[in-house]
């Protein structure tokens, strides 16, 4: 199983995805690199707002930036979701085990009631 990220990193990641504009930026970047102005235009937001949202996405590890001259281009980091997926998978495994125990208990109780 993949290593689970430290809690502070997970906090930054979940915070980064908690905003619809940032999720929209990730959706756009999943189709390829884009400049700040392209991202701002596609979401209908001002450049300063786009820059702030992108800073949160960079901090969360979801995007990387590269500057060439005066243009800063952002790309999605495909491995960024791995830590979140590992965290969710662990919780899913624990919950499924609890449901399995509940199912066994209910089956046992039903067997006792019919005897």
From TrEMBL:
Pfam families: HTH_20 (PF12840)
UniProt domain HTH arsR-type: residue ranges: 2-96
Record-linked CDD domains: HTH_ARSR
One MF term in the entry's GO annotations: DNA-binding transcription factor activity
PROSITE patterns linked to this entry: HTH_ARSR_2
NCBIfam families: HTH_metalloreg
PANTHER family recorded: SLL0088 PROTEIN, TRANSCRIPTIONAL REGULATORY PROTEIN
Name of protein: Transcriptional regulator, ArsR family
UniProt organism field: Variovorax paradoxus B4
